[in-house]
Amino acid sequence: MSRRRKVSTKNEEKMLVELKKELGPQLIEGYVQRPRRIHIKVNPGAHRKAIEFMRDKWDVWHVSTITGIDLGEKIEVIFHMWKFKEPQTAILVRTEVPKSEPKLETVTDIVPASNFYEREVHDLLGVVFEGHPNLERIVLPDDWPEGVYPLRKDWQPPE
Amino acid sequence: MSLVRIPVGPQHPALHEPENFTIEVEGETVVDVKVRIGYVHRGIEKGLESRTYVQGIFLSGRICGICSNCHTTTYAMTVEEAGGIEVPEKANYIRTIISELERIHSHLLWLGSAGLEIGFETMFMYVWRDREVVMDLLEAISGNRVNYAINIVGGVRRDITPELAKEIRKGLDYLEERTNYYKKLCFEETTIRKRTEGVGVLDTVTARKLGAVGPTARGSNVKFDVRKDDPHLKYDEAEFELITWDTCDTFARIVVRILEVLESIKIVRWCLDHMPKKGDIRPQKIIRRVPEGEAYGRFECQRGELVYFVKSDGSDKPYRVKVRTPTMANILSVPELLKGGYIADVPIALASIDPCFACEDRITFVDVEKERKWTWTKEQLRKYAMEFNRREGRW
Amino acid sequence: MLDKVVKWSRVKSPWVLHMNTGGCNGCDIEILAVLMPRFDVERFGIILTGSPRHADVLLCTGAVTKQMKKRLIRIYEQMPEPKFVMAIGNCACTGGVFKGCYGVEGGIDTTIPVDIYVPGCPPKPEAIIDGVAKLLAKLQES
């Protein structure tokens, strides 16, 4: 491993403290995985507050992608944000929604780049992003049946 | 020399299936663009969940044939981080060398195709002939011209011997000389400048807002390069510049890519100078099971930021793999790029974000004023563009 | 007599249409490399065309995705007889590495009949030229 590579996580710890102060009890869990990787888990709905805070306070305007993971009873949605201003770091904002009612508020008004990523999570996992300007089909073929979400664990491709 | 045409797609005007791009025009000017992607959606993320980590490398490398190495490297790096697997030092050097050689191959491929879009077919032929030097080097190192599969979880599969290193240096000297020639060509040749300056403008603020990545963003003066922001492999030690250009148009993107080829040559030379002569390149045993964990990997692919998110559960297959390719990030910027420009500028402006071939074979135009609708293949659009530019004196 | 002339011109100068039905572009760049001065398949008289109505040969790459299936069938139907199909690459032959993925039907022969299979991932330019030579031989016989 190189000597010049950053190994201290002081800056990331400071940022995590600021996030905890801003979100209070809405922040369920937060940890620094390694330099340039902060993970926070928030209540659904609080993700907007977290992303807005990061945009206004730290000039975080880039969302790299949005991941959806089927955890069985719940679907986890992770917003992968990237902070450009020094110290540069990735902040993963995670939240969980019940599979029986997978609804989450959109963040396209805060970070417009999330447009396509929300549509993709909707297509493949069925999460409805309330307030999205055009939540249409994006990656699946046009004749794909409605209500069938291929990335859910209970769906397998036909043999 | 006979004309080379790259034919893609049928030209029947009565076809009513969904198009990749629907461009609304008023006369000659583009007013809006609607994009439909998904023609190449194969279901790879689900496929990766049912393949072992060893098999997954081969699948992820075929998400895109031109950036194949970026995908396998990022997949391997992310799985290694999720499982806490150490990679030998020499393997990191080899990974960096192959990644930069792939960047050179891809940028030269793009430069040739861009030349074709402008109508500069001679440049297309010359650049692709020079690109064969890189293809031969990659074949000598990895055994294949495309889809090298040099990575495995924990290291690389093939070593670079001192003889091979000598061959690489010879190849780099030739490529540097040729790239400097293309750089001079771009700055001095009026055809190229007339066809690309002021075309496909994406200002800095919009580029940031819409999440543009790679040379598309750097050509709009956004200092975004994962090799500098989030160092991995040997990028924090190798000496190279972050290239940006401030004219925010297609010309800027051409310049950024040419200058990046020169920087890549520098990085490969640095790696060859500093790579340990002896050392392990792969783990002692093939790593089948990866301990439980999660990791978020970022990599600077030729087209921009490539991200992988891997969640492992202790078995020999990943629980979830999420891939976001850079073209998906750049497609959101395409409407802004094309709006306000001429129909004739569409081929080169669209090509300047370096999208995958399969994404843009047919384009539908809708004239909102005259309520007319027509579909052109890429070939027809290119022909129209050349005639238009000839008429307007941009030739 | 006219038959012989038509056959001679078809063998001497087959018109080829290239179509990517959902591949990774690896095979496509090797096809383009085959047109370049180093390999130069044009000396065989191959001419690329943009329209299926003028094509003798359909060059397909990539596994057929569900979204592209209808388009592939339509293009095949638009080509005049006699027509030949060349499947280039492992994915075009059998579905390759994507077999089993939900977005993919399989190889080209799940949708249209194939005459020549050129395996490889991607096949080297020399292999593609070999496939072309075998195709010309087949055209001669027909």
Please, could you describe this protein's structure?
Chain A is α/β, with parallel strands linked by helices. Chain A has three helices and seven strands. Chain A has helices spanning 10-23, 46-58, 115-125; strands spanning 27-34, 37-42, 62-70, 74-83, 89-98, 103-105, 128-130. A five-stranded mixed beta sheet of chain A has the order 1-2-5-4-3. Chain A has a two-stranded parallel sheet with strand order 6-7. Helices cover 47% and strands 14% of the residues of chain B. Chain B has helices at 44-49, 53-60, 68-83, 89-118, 121-142, 162-188, 190-196, 204-209, 214-218, 226-229, 250-274, 326-331, 334-338, 346-351, 378-391; strands at residues 21-26, 29-35, 151-152, 155-156, 293-301, 304-312, 318-324, 362-367, 372-377. In chain B, helix 2 (53-60) packs antiparallel against helix 3, helix 4 runs antiparallel to helix 5 and helix 4 (89-118) packs antiparallel against helix 11. Chain B is globular. In chain C, strand 1, helix 2 (26-35) and strand 2 (47-48) form a beta-alpha-beta unit. Chain C has one domain: Rossmann fold (3-Layer(aba) Sandwich). With 142 residues, chain C is an alpha/beta fold. The mean pLDDT of chain C is 84. Classes of the chains: A alpha/beta (159), B alpha+beta (395), C alpha/beta (142). Chains in contact: A-B, A-C, B-C. The A-B interface holds A 2, 4-5, 33-34, 36-37, 61-65, 67, 69-70, 78, 80, 82, 84, 88, 90, 92, 111-117, 124, 137-142, 150-151, 157 and B 18, 37-38, 41, 43, 45-46, 81, 208-211, 223-224, 229-231, 234, 236-237, 295-296, 298, 305, 307, 309, 311, 319-320, 322, 324, 328-329, 331-332.
